[in-house]
Amino acid sequence: MFIKEYISDVFKAVSSLLKGMKTTGSYFVRPKEIITQQYPDNRAHMKLPERFRGEVVMIHDENNEHACTGCTACELACPNATIKIITKFDTTPEGKKKKALDTFVYHLELCTMCNLCVEACPTSAIKMAQTFEHSVYDRNRLLKKLNQPGSKLRAGVE
Amino acid sequence: MYRETQILNSNTIAPTTARDLAMDEAGAGLVINVGPQHPATHGVLHLVITLEGETIKKIEPHLGYIHRSIEKMCESLSYRQFIYVTSRMDYLSAHINNHGCVLCVEKGLQLEIPPRAQVIRVLMDELTRIASHELWWGAMAMDLGAFTPFFYAFRERETINDIMEETCGTRLTMNYMVPGGVMYDIHPNFQRRVKDFIQLFNSKIDEYDDLVTGNIIFQNRTKGIGVLSREDAISFGCTGPVGRASGVACDIRKLYPYEVYDKVNFDEIIETAGDSYARYLVRIKELRQSVRIIEQLIDNIPEGDFQAKTKAVLKLPKGEFYSRVETARGELGVYIVSEGGTTPYRIKFRSPGFSNLSALDHMSRGCKIGDLMAIMGTLDLVIPDIDR
Predict the structure, then answer these.
(1) Of A24, A28, A80, B99, most Cβ neighbours within 10 A?
(2) What angle is formed at CA B159 by the lines to CA B157 and CA B164, rounded to 5 degrees?
(3) Same domain, A10 and A65
(4) Nearest CB partner across the interface for A23, out of B168, B175, B210
(5) 129-158 in chain A: CB under 8 A from chain B
(6) Mean pLDDT for chain B?
(7) What does residue A72 show for φ and ψ, rounded to 5 degrees?
(8) Is the pLDDT of residue A124 over 70?
(9) With contacts defined as CB-CB under 8 Å, which chain A residues touch B170?
(10) Is residue A158 part of a domain?
(11) How many domains does chain A have?
């Protein structure tokens, strides 16, 4: 009786192993199901979805104008002090002083891509870009100024 | 004998390290350290193990290697901001952690969540659960010496990550849930891609069964190993698949249904053996139940808003609020004490991993050192969840 059980156990064991090997072997003859991507060789045709959060950028139009009023809503919404807004006072044609954006400082090294700043922005001035290769040799290069030099507030944005 | 004389000679020097302390208690036993950098602990967990021959006499887990004081950090963040930090606790079920937090905040604000947001949240939760169990399945099989399952599991998990990337914007730490609903509406491709995935995945679970569940080597290494009785599971506070494998009905989705869990049909998987194999079976069967929930909801996402109207600055009334959700590892409790301000006065997270780890010593006493990997694999520990 013992020997009978022993032999049946051995057969069961071998059959269970063969069953697993069948699954593995079936992929050997179906190479089309291999999903490995050859990064960075596929850079040219690699597409990230439009919602992908790579880094915060400021939207500039063709006239080098942005929509940031310097209201600091994004600075307040940011959980890790990634954003620092430096404002200045512009003089309007009527001679009044008006608060405007001077520098939009963005610390990429502190950013966790939580998207709260983009959600908080009342004028949709910033968005998330689809870049992801952020490696640099010097960490100071991760400190970014988002508004382009010479850019100004788009007319009509309050 | 040598040890005794050594202790006698050095009794004036107080034992300093954890290993020294354990050695003095162990007497004749051999004390070894597993971790903090050990590939099978999946994170920085330090186990001081006392052995007698190959048999485990005692295990003492030492925590704190990845403690980031998340609870304290949350006290200085507003009710919108603190949610993103909780993704970093149990990073494999980030959605469900966020879900627990927003539920607690909504309880305080007494917000009514639009039905569309509720369904989207549940769908995301279940997709996360599948992704988490997949990673566990691959990593656990790899701990036990099978290498191929890891690639198979990651292949399917990648599909879920792509779906998440398309709808939420990120792959692991999504921060998609906000108080009042979800951050933005689902992507137009979402329903089609989830349906494609479900169709593919149903056939793949059978493949998993063929590859690992029936495998004789795997069964011999897990059956009867690390037995946790029902009483012990309750007294150690084990929840999730660990508790359910010991026969404790502890699924929060059934006991205290949140969102639309009371409207969908699914079974609470309960095994009674309490060993590593039972814990394995519970998770594999839960995969099918998650698929069942998604199948019921994916075609029935109601139209409407995906976010309720909330104030710009959230203020919880003075008081204490508690919410609980079922993560892939067990019950996550979020406890907020509010003083009426914009930031919480105190936050406490009851994480499932911590309670499940506390049973490790009890389960593995008397087992062989080689069985420890099977026990730890089926506990499905995520160390940042334990330390927080």
Answers:
(1) B99
(2) 95
(3) no
(4) B210
(5) none
(6) 84
(7) 65, 20
(8) yes
(9) 52-53, 113
(10) no
(11) 2
CA distance linking residue B256 with residue B350, whole number of Å: 16
In a shared domain, residues B119 and B38 = no
At B303, which CATH number?
1.10.645.10
CB-based contact B85 A16, cutoff 8 Å: no
Query: Could you tell me the pLDDT band of residue B274, with boundaries at 50, 70 and 90?
Result: confident
pLDDT of residue B17: 59
Contact B96, B129 (CB under 8 A): yes
Rounded to whole angstroms, the Cα distance separating B130 from B116 reads 21
**Beta strands, E only, chain B:** 30-34, 46-52, 55-62, 177-178, 181-182, 319-326, 331-338, 346-350
User: Above 50 in pLDDT, residue B10?
Assistant: no
B13 vs A65 pLDDT, higher one: A65
B158, B173, B216 ranked by CB distance to A16: nearest: B216
Q: Which domain holds residue A90?
A: 48-153
Nearest-neighbour CA in chain B from A123: distance (Å)? 15
Length of chain A: 158
Query: Rg (Cα) of chain B, in Å, rounded?
Result: 22
Shortest Cα distance, chain A CAs vs residue B47, angstroms: 31
* Whether B80 and B119 share a structural domain: yes
Of B333, B376, B370, B325, nearest to B351 by C-alpha is B333
Question: Does the residue A27 lie in any domain?
Answer: yes
Do B180 and B157 belong together in one domain? Answer: yes
The range of the structural domain enclosing residue B29 comes to: 2-62
Residues 74-93 of A with CB under 8 A from B: 77-79
Q: What is the pLDDT of residue B2?
A: 47
With a cut of 80, say whether residue A96 has pLDDT above it: no
Domain finish residue from B37, B62, B87: B62
Q: Give the pLDDT of residue B335.
A: 92
Do B287 and B312 fall into the same domain?
yes
Q: Is A115 close to B178, i.e. CB distance below 8 A?
A: no
**Chain A residues with CB inside 8 Å of B166's CB?**
49, 51
> Domain count of chain B?
2
B10 & B117 share domain: no
Judge if A70 and A141 occupy the same domain: yes
pLDDT digits (tens, 9 = 90+) for B17-75: 555 555 555 566 788 888 787 766 677 888 888 888 888 888 888 888 888 888 898 88
Tell me whether residue A38 is in a domain. no
Q: Are residues B92 and B192 in the same domain?
A: yes
